[in-house]
Amino acid sequence: MKVFNVIGISCGHIGLHPFLNEKRFKILANMDSRSCFHTPKEEQWKENYGKISFYRNPKSIYDHVGTQKVHVLISHPACGGQSILRISRKKDFKSTEEQKADPTMVNFIESVHHFKPHVFLLENLPKLLEVIPENQWENEIFPDYNLVFHNHSVSEWGNSQISRNRLVIIGVKKSSLLFKLEQFLFVKQMKALRTTQDLLFNLPKNGNIIEDLDKIVSMFHPDDKNKTKLSLKQVQRLWTNEFRDEWKWPWVNSKGSRGTLPGVYRNKPNGYPMTARKADRQFKWNGLPMSPRELARIMGIPDKFKIHIEEDRKNYWINKGRLIVTQTFPYEIGLWFKECLLNC
């Protein structure tokens, strides 16, 4: 039985999890230069991956892997430069040179050339192709690989965030005798789509925790010219009373026009969930902020993934948990990729 060696590069915590404790796969190591994914003692990482190494720089993982063959490389580089949310804040896309110079993207590209994996998965926002078009990926960056580009709503893979669109690039080494591009040509729904209320039913205790309601957040009443920040309790009262018919937070811009605050919303119980984000400004229909575990459910992450929470510095760990489960690709993409690999 062939066992495939897997590594993560700019992969966060979730991308490798579908391959954990699977008899056909061996995770050699993970590397991500983004400090947000690390803690001083790597408590969150060790909670799930135990003694598997998690590095902060490419040299460390290069040294760790050494001469071992890498069959599969998985990557989720930073994608904020292409974010629609940033456009709404009048920030332009990064130029091609800047995008290539992003350390997480550079680490991915250089690691593919270093390890020469049989197959890789790169996940990002579709706008990436406006910065680096398909022909540049194929002819300049990875000429030794056959590529397939999937640009879909994540619901095509079975995740319920129907409004969330992602780009998945699969590269298969032209000389590989293990994998063929045909294995990865078609996307498949790995799960049935579910409403937010169904997704959040029967939650485990682990990670299902929110801040105390006296916490002050960066939100204010749209009619408050002083922009006085509100507590979570005040926010909940507004959601359930004055704004009970609103599902996005109302605000007034500098010109006096009314609109909604980008990225701040309530999920409808009987609708599909909106895009999960790392901030503490996504709410349930009852006006309470979403816990790390609730966001994990929306991202398709199974309950067996443990979210590290300590009562000491509780808010720090809650925010870290939210970031860990949202700064990644939906879990169903990883399940699909694993199934494709096993069809070799």
CATH class of the largest domain: Alpha Beta
How many domains make up the coordinates?
Answer: 2
Distance between the termini: 12 Å
Q: In percent, how helical is the residue content?
A: 25-40%
How much of the sequence lies in strands comes to: 15-25%
The CATH topology label of the largest domain is Rossmann fold
Order of helices and strands: EEHEHEHHHEHHEEHEEHEEEHHH
Q: What is the tally of helical segments?
A: 12
Name given to the CATH homologous superfamily of the largest domain:
Vaccinia Virus protein VP39
In CATH, the architecture of the largest domain is: 3-Layer(aba) Sandwich
- Strand element count: 12
Using only CA atoms, what is the Rg?
Answer: 21 Å
Q: What structural class results from the helix and strand content?
A: alpha/beta
Principal-axes shape call: globular
Main sheet makeup: 7 strands, mixed
Model regions low in confidence, pLDDT < 50 over at least 5 residues: 82-95
Report strand order across the widest sheet: 3-2-1-4-5-7-6
Averaged pLDDT, please?
Answer: 92
Structure commentary:
The protein has 344 residues and is α/β, with parallel strands linked by helices. The protein folds into two domains: 4-190 and 330-342, Vaccinia Virus protein VP39 (Rossmann fold, 3-Layer(aba) Sandwich); 196-326, no CATH class. The chain is built from twelve helices and twelve strands. It has helices spanning 43-49, 58-65, 84-88, 96-101, 103-115, 128-131, 134-141, 196-199, 232-240, 292-298, 314-326, 331-342; strands at 4-9, 25-31, 54-55, 72-75, 119-124, 145-153, 165-173, 216-217, 230-231, 248-252, 258-266, 282-283. It has a seven-stranded mixed sheet with strand order 3-2-1-4-5-7-6. Strands 10-11-12 form a three-stranded mixed sheet, with no helix packed on it. Strands 8-9 form a two-stranded antiparallel sheet. It starts with a strand and ends with a helix. Residues 82-95 have low confidence and may be disordered.
